[in-house]
Structure formats: C-alpha cells, structure tokens
Amino acid sequence: MQLLQFTDKGIYCPAGDFYIDPWQPVRRAVITHAHSDHARWGHQHYLCQHDSVPLLKLRLGSDIQVQGAAFGETIRYNGVTISLHPAGHIIGSAQIRVEQAGEVWVASGDYKLENDGLSGQFEVVKCHTFITESTFGLPIYNWLPQETIFDNIAQWIDNNSQTDKNSVILAYSLGKAQRLLYHLKGKVDHFLVHGAIFNTHQVLLENGWDLPPVTLLTPDTPKSVFKNSLIIAPPSAADSTWMRKFNPYALGVCSGWMQVRGNMRRRNADAGFALSDHADWPALLAAVKATGAQKVYATHGFSSVFARYLQDTGIAASEVKTAFGEEEEAVPPTPAPTP
C-alpha cells in the first residue's frame, strides 16, 4: 500500500489517517498554504505552518480548529512522521514531508525557487516520491529575475504619471500583492488597495510582517491621492464599475500568464508583467532533480506534458488529476472567442 494515495477527497495517508490539502471535508487536514484551492472550509482539524494560521482564520473563520507548526518540527500521526518545509510560494507556504519505515514522500503544494524576501527560501527535501505542481510546466515559461520585473513596473508607473494616467495593477490578494508592496516601497509615493487586499494586509501587519502602509480605497477616497500612487486590486475587480473612479488610468496585470503576449490583450491590459508565485519550467526541472525522487507525480497545470517530459528523461512520472489550480493564477486565461 502506498504511503500516500490519491482519492476523491484529496491526497490521503492511510497509515496516519490524514489528508493533505483535501477538497472534501475530512477529520484531519494538513494544509500546504492558505490559497483557497488548497485550504478548504469544513475540516474538523487543520495543521499548517504557523505563519498560515492567521491567514486560514481570515479566510475560513476564526472558529476553525487549527494547529500551527514551525518549519522542520516533527509531528506524529499513528506512527507516521510529518514535517513542514519552506515552499517559497507565499507567506506560510510549506511542503509536507511524510515518512514511515524509512519511506519518504514529499507533497510540495505550490512552490517557487526564487526567494521573494517574504515567503522563505524553497528547501530541497530529499525523498523517494515527489508530488509536484506543474502550473507552468511548459518550456515557454521562463521568468526574468524579479528585480528586473519590479524595475520595469516602477518605470511603467513613472511613465503613467508623466502622461497623467493613474496606475492600476491587478494582483492576487494573497501572494503577489504583498510582493508588490514589499519590493516597490521607496519607489512609489503611496499604495492604495482594494478591500480584499487591505484585509489580508492588516492581518499580516498584526502578525509582525514588515510591509509598508496602505490606504483602503472607498467611495469617499479623493481622486487627488491617485496621482503618483499605485492602485492594487485583485483580478476579480477587472471590468467592474469599481474601476471607473480611476479614469484616466493604465491597467497592468501581474501573472505568469503574461509571458504569452496574447493574454495581455485578452485581459484588456495596457501592460503585462510575468511575475509569478509558481516555479517556471527550469525551476520545476531543477526541483525534481534536486529531490532525488525515484517517482514523481505531476498535478495541476500542464501536468500531462510535464510528466511525459520527465518520463523521456528517465524519471518514473505520472499525471494526477486534483481539484488544485482554482486560484486566479493557476487557471489559464480563457482564449478570446472566435469572431
């Protein structure tokens, strides 16, 4: 019997009687990170990295039964050893290492190798079997260094100011929004944010994260504060009446899908920045190789392509269908309809 099994409720450990990122209600859930496709409501007990605890409570309710663990701390369920290790995806994101009788599996959740200064440095965890995401599992996805991307964003904001346009960027409220704030502080006069981002920001400030001050956008926010500022909103705000108050404005989108130019046009954006909280193609390959895994399971994204490529390089790999990949960036944009 496999140490971890793929079931209709999620990734299950029969020996330990727990699930990893289950998408159906279960008794005991080990959570890799606080994005909604991995952290669902309805479980009796949650275990996650301690920085994820306040984020889970924000998203799932303050009354959930949740236990926080430090990176590297070991926990035992029915003789199975569990430990959490940095995934580098977002604040509090972790890979789940599971061991029994010398056999080691790692469920990576979502991850990236480039350290963004907030999410921690991805830790290589040696294992026999590695469960990897493959959101951007195609060779076309090869990110620029993040310093270059943030310099490009700062230049774009300055250019907009020179032409009397307000700068609006769409970025996921947990992950990229914090990276924008962290890396653009000192380069932008003022940050104005949508309520979804503001709520997350307040929780992170209360828990000691070093992020710059922001202003919550309300119907009463005067237009005079828009100039020389950066307005950050979640992708759900695109094409909404909420956006009208910023006219005239230039719209930027932060997403790995912006690597493909056509996706910028489909979003009706003026600029696209391929900033992602997921590993690109070279990083996915590097992570798999570094683990030394003899077996790899690829989930969500371009999982079939990635698994087939690994097979061609001599690694035993399979595609696994999961309910992961429903957060904004993890779903490829819908192609423009045929005229």
TrEMBL record:
Q: Name one GO molecular function term.
A: exonuclease activity
Q: Which UniProt keywords apply?
A: Exonuclease, Hydrolase, Ligase, Nuclease
- State the signal peptide span: none
Annotated EC: 3.1.-.-
Q: Which PANTHER family match?
A: BLL1145 PROTEIN, CLEAVAGE AND POLYADENYLATION SPECIFICITY FACTOR FAMILY MEMBER
> What is the protein's name according to its record?
Ligase-associated DNA damage response exonuclease
Which species is this record about?
A: Chitinophaga defluvii
